[in-house]
Amino acid sequence: MWEAIESNRRRSRIIVGGMALLLVLLGALIGNAVVPRAGLAGGVGVALLIWMVLWMVAAFQGDSIMLSIAGAEKIEHADAPQLFNVVEEMVIASGLGRMPDIYVIPDDRPNAFAAGRKAETRVVCVTSGLLRLLNRDELQGVVAHEIGHHKNGDPALMILMGVMLGAIVLIAEIFLRGNFFGGRRRSSDKESGGLEIALFVLALLLAILAPIVAQMMYFACSRRREFLADASGARFTRYPEGLASALEKISVHYQGGFKANKVLAPMYIVNPMQALAAVGLFSTHPPTEDRVKILRAMGGGVGYVDYDSAYRKITGRAGCIGKRTLAADKPEQAREASPAPAETREETVTRSREVGNLVGRLDGFTMMQCACGVGIKVPPGSSWSSIPCPRCGRDNPVPKAQPADRSDGPLTFRRQGKGWQSFQCSCGASINVSPAFEAKSQTCSRCGKAIQIV
Amino acid sequence: MGGAVIAVVALGIGLFIVILVLAVAGMYNGLVRSRNETKNAWAQIDVQLKRRHDLIPNLVETVKGYAKHEQGTLQGVIAARAAAVGAGTVDAKIAAEGQLSQALSRLMVVTENYPELKANTNFLGLQEELTSTENKIAFARQAYNDAAMTYNTKIETFPSNLVAGNFGFKPEPLFQVSDQKEREAPQVKF
Description:
The structure holds two protein chains of two kinds.
Chain A: H1 6-34, H2 39-70, E1 73-74, H3 81-94, E2 101-105, E3 112-115, E4 123-127, H4 128-133, H5 136-151, H6 154-182, H7 194-237, H8 240-251, H9 288-296, H10 304-315, H11 323-328, H12 345-362, E5 366-369, E6 375-378, E7 386-388, E8 395-397, E9 402-403, E10 411-413, E11 421-424, E12 430-433, E13 441-443, E14 450-453
Parallel strand pairs in A: 2-4, 10-14
Antiparallel strand pairs in A: 1-2, 3-4, 5-6, 7-8, 9-10, 11-12, 13-14
Helix pairs in contact in A: 1-2, 1-6, 1-7, 2-6, 3-5, 5-7, 5-8, 6-7, 7-8, 8-9, 9-10
Chain B: H1 2-66, H2 71-86, H3 90-111, H4 115-118, H5 121-156, H6 160-167, H7 180-183
């Protein structure tokens, strides 16, 4: 359908090729500097080996490492119905085919990312702060941007480039440290002629410059991919204002100190490492301000053509989308805003409470509600058997799984109604029962006991 | 000499035939892929319409408890749903689904007058599901139209039109509901 962004693919290939060349060159020169005359091929071999090992780790474990560093947890429809629905909508709109897994990070800083090298491992991940902050249209815009990354094949490309960047940085670092701290043992070697010294200096220079150049290449690619994902997001939702307004809301929030790292930073919708939006060759993301301006300058259209001309108008640069994609694009009109764009305070409060409950469940709290309506969260591992309500003072027993009938019978929890319910296992771990839960028993994730649910 | 020329010519003809067969096979496969995409997109619309039909009884049941004076509107929704479920031809289906959209939006306007209903978590959940289903119908139609247009273009343009004509590929109809409002997402106002 949207034959994804053809000429950008070629451009990316050139950048990947350039980085590979840099890696090989660095390996050759360093190899030669360490073992003069014989080290050339060995250096290349070691460089490629390091690259391959890093690639294997990233390819087979990268996504789960990334998700676990970020503290993300997989969720189901019942956990956050709106998020789940919005992802489904965008999968249909984009023709992506397979539904990605959805993860939530319990974190107040609003952010989101897409990960997954293959269709089977695709992930869309958002923070709880994002869910709390955005209305439906804005959330849809952000999700469309992430689905756009998947549709354009960005996670795979960024892993490929990130691994090369990592290998270059690692090799250069080892060489430089070895020289500064180990001294130059062969400096007194009589045989080392002028050419050798020149090559050594060249190796030193490259070891200093290569990581910088590679990083610039990586970030240039990443910035461009952000624009493309924005364009796809506008196309899929037919509502650029949703993403624009989301970016505006997100950008005023402090992002610093996020549990992410440099190589993974480009995957997020806004850079998680930067407290303030820095601009230039070393930023992973284009300035959010520009992204918002472009989305708002699309003049009622939502196609790639509209985005491209808005991009040229705002940045003053040549277009960002390939000719073939533009030629295949059909003009589309923006849709109207969803009903009730102005949110009432009540809706914001409801949303905030729902997200709070979601975070509580993900963090292992036992959630209960007093008869007066106040929600009470019992921290994991607490030994209280009952908690007085902070508003009305009523004593609320903490729901626990009890042995049924006889004292040595199996642990049992009685559900009341069909909503979310949580209770504690006899080991103290909290267990949540979702409205969609239909099985007869549940195993405690901490102690492994089977608990009957009736 | 003569034998060599004949061999070269034969080789040339052979090569030409191989290339031709490969090209035709490639175009045929492209057409099949495109047609399957179109069919899938059409099936997706049906899935979402079915989902909407499934949601309505629950919705009506929930609203009934709070909005006792809206029997007429509720009956309208039930009747429109029954008509949509029973519709046979594609045209009848499109018309009936349009009617259902309108009946639903009337119901949703009415619910604005019942604050207790709007505080009911069950109702809020159904409301989100209904909004999403309406969105999915709209996006599925959009995806279908895009797929069908790509497919139809392939059938009509050279050189794939030659392959399409010989193997019986027929163009698929596009969604063209005369009323612009209807073609857009059947917006449900909450």
